[in-house]
């Protein structure tokens, strides 16, 4: 994997709990293009506090890993489609439109999880992302989700029922 992650390049001030570089309590997930040019990869070793059943990873953590990593996969594909480097302006941002997780096998605690994601089908305003979660050589979960390219200022204004995104009023 490369030296600087997509998150560090495109959103060093990010505060997302899962993937934000600037969240002091977050997981700091780091996503990188794979050398195959198709997949975006991440690795995360869950801490003991993310245990679900004894010796098994909590499913909610797996969902969060898939959500954050899949979102960064969508954004990475958009940057590449526009011939731009992550972090170049204007910033590309996506949000989760639909998060689908299939738990295939129990995910054991005690080792790194590898996330391998790619765009499935056409890249557009709404893009389908497939994300595999592996514990060693074992596929334990699969994400099949939709991510939507957005203007986050407008999204935030709508969430707070604001009419003017520039003045907040």
Can you walk through the features of this model?
- The protein has 169 residues and is an alpha+beta fold.
- The chain has three helices and seven strands, in the order αββαβββββα.
- Strands 1, 2, 3, 4, 5, 6 and 7 form a seven-stranded antiparallel beta sheet that branches.
- The longest helix is centred in the middle third of the chain and has 23 residues, at 59-81.
- It is globular, with a radius of gyration of 16 Å.
- The termini are far apart.
The percent range for strand residues is: 25-35%
Number of strands: 7
Helicity range of the residues?
10-25%
Mean pLDDT: 94
N-C termini distance: 44 Å
List the secondary-structure elements in sequence, H or E: HEEHEEEEEH
Class from secondary-structure proportions: alpha+beta
Q: Give the overall shape, derived from the CA principal axes.
A: globular
| Number of helical regions | 3
Rg: 16 Å
Report the biggest beta sheet as strand number plus sense, adding barrel if it closes. 7 strands, antiparallel
Poorly predicted runs:
none
Labels describing this entry:
alpha+beta; 169 residues; seven-stranded antiparallel beta sheet; 3 helices
């Amino acid at each position: 994997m490369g030296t600087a992650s997509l998150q560090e390049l495109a959103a060093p001030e990010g505060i997302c709990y899962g993937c934000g570089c600037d969240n002091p309590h977050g997981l700091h997930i780091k996503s990188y293009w794979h050398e195959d040019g198709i997949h975006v990869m991440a690795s995360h070793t869950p801490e003991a506090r993310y245990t679900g059943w004894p010796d098994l990873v909590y499913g909610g953590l797996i969902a969060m890993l898939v959500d954050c990593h899949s979102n960064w996969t969508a954004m990475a594909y958009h940057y590449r489609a526009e011939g731009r480097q992550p972090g170049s302006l204007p910033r590309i941002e996506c949000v989760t439109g639909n998060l689908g997780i299939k738990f295939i096998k129990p995910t054991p605690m005690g080792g790194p999880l590898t996330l391998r994601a790619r765009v499935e089908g056409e890249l557009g305003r709404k893009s389908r992302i497939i994300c595999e979660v592996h514990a060693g050589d074992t596929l334990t979960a699969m994400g099949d989700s939709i991510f939507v390219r957005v203007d986050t200022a407008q999204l935030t204004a709508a969430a707070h029922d604001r009419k003017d995104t520039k003045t907040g009023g």
